[in-house]
Amino acid sequence: MKICHTFYEKKKFGGSETYFRILRKQSAHKHHIAYVDKSFQYKESFENFYEGFSRLVDSLRQKGFDVIHNHFFIPAFFSEERGLPNMLTSHCMLSEEFLWSVNDAANPAEARAMKLSSRLFGQAETNMYPRIRNIQVFSDFHRREIEAIGGKATKVPIILDASYFGKKPKEQARASASIPNKFTILFSGRPTYYKGLHILLEGFGSMKGEDIQLVILSEDISVDDGMIVHKPCISTERNPKKISTQRFDNSRVIIRRTGSRERLADYYSSADVFICPSLYESVGYVNLEAMASRVPIVASDTCGIPEFVINGKTGLLFEPGNPQDLIEKVLKLRENKPLADKIRENQRQFVSQFDVRKNIKTIDRTYEEIK
Questions:
Q1: Percent of the chain having pLDDT more than 70?
Q2: What does each C-alpha distance from 136 to 71, 110, 204, 322, 370 come to in angstroms?
Q3: What does the buried/exposed string (b/e) look like for 38-57 if buried means 16 or more CB atoms within 10 Å of the residue's CB?
């Protein structure tokens, strides 16, 4: 079978991109990828986003794919409308992501535009989700989000290729990644508002001691006059301006680009604690990667995160947006080695259920049933 996955634009890392790479490697079927035309690959307006996906689906109609696997609700709706065999893996509510991303707007005019886009996406979600069949989600939280607007979704296991992670002992991984041998806190992800890096930076700033360091792992990130600078992941401008997160202690903070998948694994294995401070997250795929690397996690007690980071078992949860509570949980793991060791062992057992080798036959049958 030939499966075509639809995406808006190319990204090196991300949950949906990782999902596609795993399927392409492990599935018995042939997996291809199609992106919206470059002329539509900026979020200048809701209409531009809508039109780009409409044209993408039209372009796929004559290419002989057995199933169109969409990773956004808009192309899934168009696939249904055109009568194409299709499925939707829904990763988030775009209206929610736009609403949180208002905080990343470079100016008041863009903030207003993003609020409007959030409302338009919300209206589209309410109209389209109930008309899409074959919706899959990875968390009960996101399933409930879809049900709240009249849609119907099936929760399925998320998949993980654990073979990338946990191969090297900590000292060897730190040497490979050029990370000093200190107590290491790791953040991996986009440095945008709803990913909560500002919460972690505020908390870390209150920690004392030169034997503690924070590693920030991200793409499209730089430093300017002591500030972390990055492009927003969602913008209503064709060429979005870079925005600043906040000041940080340069002597104890290491900022790196992610690099290869192998290097990503080195960064995980270098860490003593992994932090997921997100304010909105339907799953939080990075937490599964941290578990596969046997790194204790401190994560926000919100949205879909607690379904994976189970408090006291596979990690510790902190009050969303509370930097002091975050740091208290980090120190608890640092000072309580038996607790950290117990969490590592629980992670090993918990994350094994998502191993792609256990789930790939079921996934392949899903495509066959749709066709």
A1: 97
A2: 10, 33, 37, 32, 13
A3: eebebbeebebbbbbbbebb
CA–CA separation, 315 and 264 (whole Å): 20
- pLDDT, tens digit, for every residue of 66-91? 999 999 999 999 999 999 999 999 99
Cα Rg of the chain (Å, integer): 21
Q: DSSP assignment, residue 138?
A: S
Domains observed in the chain: 2-159+355-370 (3.40.50.2000), 162-354 (3.40.50.2000)
**Positive/negative CA dihedral, 245, 318, 11, 292:** positive
Reported as a single tens digit per residue, the pLDDT across 118-173 is: 999 999 999 999 999 999 999 999 999 999 999 999 999 999 998 889 889 999 99
Would you say 240 and 295 are in contact if contact means Cβ atoms under 8 Å apart?
no
Q: What is the DSSP letter of 241?
A: P
In this prediction the pTM is 0.92
